[in-house]
Amino acid sequence: SLPLLKRLVNGLLDPVYQIIDASLQNQEYTREDNIITEALQGNPGFDHLYSDDQGEMIVAAHPIIDQNAVIGAVVLKQSTDRILEVRRDALKRIVNFSIISVILFASIILGFSVRLAGRIRRLGAEANNDIDIYGRLRTNKISSETASGDEIGDLARSISGMLTRLHQHNQFLENMPRTLRHEINNPLNALSTSLQNLEGQTDDKAKTKYLDSAKRGVNRIGMIVQNLADAASLEEALIGEEMEVINLHNLIKNYLANCKVVHPKVQFEYQGADLPAYAEICDFRIEQLLDKLVDNAIDFALPKTTVKLGLTASAQTISFFVENQGDPIPELIKDSLFDSMVTARDKNPD
Fold it and tell me: The domain containing residue 151 runs over which residues?
């Protein structure tokens, strides 16, 4: 392609060079006779001449002096065609090289601009197509330009990360009804079971036990509704809770007794310290946490196995644990296990 470009440039510039040569030939040159006459008069000289046969020439004449008298003249002629040709070729090479360089540079810039515009259009088109007409995300990432190492690649990876976070948030919002149902069902089930057991009891001690369990269920439902109503966002529902010093050992024991009532077909067992363990906490949030752990333990436990709850305490820390016997965590969800709304249940996805 480069030789073809050279031939094209030469073809375009040859008429220009011919015009320049013609303008040089039309110049007025000194006649050869005048130079010889001046030399015979004792005045050496030189000048440029032009003839149709030999072209442009340099003519020099010098007088021949003998005994202080001019007896003749020596005339030298040299054609300048070769000199002019070399000069013209050098000029053509410089001009041609400059023009070809400009064309190549402009072509490279144009090609780079076209490629850059195409990459940006592809990235923009994929980003637009990832959102449907209703504003819902169709995917959680983009593939265009994410492997590039330049600024457009950085932009693509930023957009992909943003889509991933938006996708997680949309999933969170889509699963919010099931989440709320799950949060309310636990205390609601406890309330229903306590009321059913309360109906057939005649023992005052048992009645008090079931009545306290029912009251706690009602209070938990009320707190959930109130926190959701007061909070501008779900995260704010966790802020501003009333803290009080509670014996966590008694809380676990009471919670375990309530679990045995709500889940009569599941075997529960307490393990850990039997000593009091006091901490400044919100007991409602602790019970919510235990609800989720126990529900997971029940759903993923093997049939006829025991679910164990326990408490360990040291001088600085207090730890809860829930243990069951079941299948290992699937490899596919290990990296996203603690993301919002992640589940591996085949049934009861709440």
Answer: 131-174
pLDDT at 300 exceeding the cut of 50 = yes
* Cα atoms found within 13 Å of the Cα of residue 328, Cβ hemisphere only: 4
* pLDDT surpassing 90 at residue 45: no
Q: Is residue 103 part of a domain?
A: no
In a domain, 187, yes or no: yes
Q: Which of 56, 55, 66, 30 is nearest to 45 (CA)?
A: 30
Burial state string for 314-335 with b = 16 or more CB within 10 A and e = fewer than 16: eeeeeebebebeeeeeeeeeee
Q: Say yes or no: 270 and 317 in one domain.
A: yes
Report how far residue 258's alpha carbon sits from residue 187's, in angstroms, rounded to the nearest whole number: 10
In whole angstroms, what is the distance from residue 129 CA to residue 117 CA?
A: 18
**What domain count does the chain have?**
3
Which pTM value belongs to this model? 0.45
Band of residue 114 on the pLDDT scale cut at 50, 70, 90: very high
d(CA 103, CA 90): 20
Dist CA 312 CA 274 (whole Å): 9
Based on the domain organization, do 307 and 345 belong to the same domain? Answer: yes
CA distance 24 to 85: 13
Taking only the tens place, the pLDDT of each residue in 276-298 is 888 888 887 788 788 888 888 88
Q: Is residue 317 part of a domain?
A: yes
Residue 335 located in a structural domain = yes
Rounded average pLDDT over 192-200:
77
Among positive and negative, which fits the CA dihedral 29, 34, 36, 39? Answer: negative
Query: Distance between CA 298 and CA 267 in Å, rounded?
Result: 10
- Is the pLDDT reported for residue 248 higher than 70? yes
